[in-house]
Amino acid sequence: MDQTLQVRQAAADLVAAFANNDTARYFACFSEDATFLFHTVPQPLLSRRAYEELWASWQADGFAVLGCESSNAQVSLQGEVAIFMHDVTTRLNVAGETLDLNERETIVFRLHGDRWLACHEHLSVVSPA
């Protein structure tokens, strides 16, 4: 399979796991040394473990993903690294309140053997035109 298609499939698997609130499958899409930069969190998360701990605390407070859709995807291959950029529309339950978010995301994938794993994720708000 073409590497661009492999990256698109890895991203689709990640988004599907997130959309289905499938915690184990979602975090399996990331390398252990993955880093995360979210506009909703005051500091970068410097490991998958740090994000997993934050995720667990969100879930304890009633957080759940209700749905997520990806659009306008672009892939840039850079050797054994790939940059995946897309627009993402997400519906969340946060402490009993439903939130609809429109964001832009960059996910950097790195080839691990024959599998593309996310090693960095950057989520930002979509600026009004």
From TrEMBL:
Residue intervals of the SnoaL-like domain: 7-126
Record Gene3D superfamilies: 3.10.450.50
Alphabetical UniProt keywords: Isomerase
GO molecular function, one term: isomerase activity
Transcription found in the keyword field: no
Keyword Isomerase: yes
InterPro entries for this protein: NTF2-like_dom_sf (IPR032710), SnoaL-like (IPR037401)
Domain of life from the UniProt record: Bacteria
The protein's name: Ketosteroid isomerase homolog
Organism: Pseudomonas soli
